[in-house]
Amino acid sequence: MAVSKDLPILIVDDYKTMLRIVRGLLNQLGFSNIEEATDGQRALDMVTQRPTAYGLVISDWNMQPVSGLDLLKGVRANPNTARLPFIMVTAEARPENVVAAKAAGVNNYIIKPFTAAVLKQKLTAVLGEL
Amino acid sequence: MTGDELRQEIASERRDLLNHVNALRLAVAELRPNEMRSKRLPSALQEIGVIVETTEAAANEIMGAVEEIMQQPSDMSAEDYRAAVEERCIAVMTACSFQDLTGQRINKVVELLLKLEVKLAGLAEALGEDHELPEHAGELDGDGELLNGPALPGEGADQSEIDRLFA
């Protein structure tokens, strides 16, 4: 069964240009129910306050003071959001980063810069057929 | 001044001089000039080089997409034209991600300069120059050590290597 295009998606990045890019690509794929956060703490608050509000989180890693990895750990530590699909989109390309993110429970990992095709591929891998 | 007093004065001056020399040696050592010359500064220069390349590549990608839009044949159907324009717009959009990547690289260079400023301030102080110590750039620990920003060419994993970990 194809994924509903009404799926609420939270995108998190401290670079507003990147938020616009990810939002634009998601729009292009048919997703329009998108919310944004420009730092990990704000995103964690949003997810914690409304644990069933989101069907997917797409987050950058390198943010201060709460990083994408901290956000991921916070999401996984909360029983209400522990299974929330989470994709890391980041320039942190060292193997130790990927291993740490995987250990923390990330569902997929995209290296910046990425193409629309890669984003689509990872969304399909995490959510199912788009 | 008696002979003993003179000897004590000289010994005291000598101790002060030794302390000063030791403080200077420590301040110079703190600068880690060899590491700075052989590793940190070349790495910063490499980051700046990659910034120039990334910006140029993004500009070329954007220009290329715009030129392709402008070169679409005038007898295309509206539907085909729209599809062609949309495809190039997505290329332009993704090319704009250079701003994030170059921003992170610039931040790495700025952090290095800030650390260098702190160390030079320490040296200036040891030399007796009146210099206010700038705030020390915070050292990262724990997961913070994983925050390295974009990897230099040939250093990080590529998407296909990461995909294998999630297969």
Outline the structure in words.
The complex is a heterodimer of chains A (about 130) and B (about 170). Chain A is α/β, with parallel strands linked by helices. Chain A is built from 5 helices and 5 strands; from the N terminus they run E-H-E-H-E-H-E-H-E-H. Chain A has a 5-stranded parallel β-sheet with strand order 2-1-3-4-5, with helices on both faces. The termini of chain A are close together. Chain B has helices at about 5-30, 35-70, 80-95, 100-125, 160-165. The mean pLDDT of chain B is about 85. The chains are: A alpha/beta (about 130), B mainly alpha (about 170). The interface of A and B includes residues 61, 93, 95 and 110 of A.
The DSSP helix count of chain A reads 5
Task: Report the count of strand segments of chain A.
Answer: 5
Q: Give the oligomeric state of the chains in this entry, treating copies of one chain as homo and distinct chains as hetero.
A: heterodimer
Q: End-to-end span of chain B in angstroms? A: 86 Å
Q: H/E series of chain A, N to C?
A: EHEHEHEHEH
Strand order of the largest sheet of chain A: 2-1-3-4-5
Question: Which value, in Å, is the CA radius of gyration of chain A?
Answer: 13 Å
Residue runs with pLDDT of under 50 for 5 or more positions of chain B: none
Beta-strand content of chain B: under 5%
Rounded to the nearest angstrom, the radius of gyration of chain B is 28 Å
The average pLDDT of chain A is 95
Largest β-sheet summary of chain B: none
Can you tell me the residue ranges of chain A where pLDDT is under 50 for at least 5 consecutive residues?
none
Mean pLDDT, all residues of chain B = 87
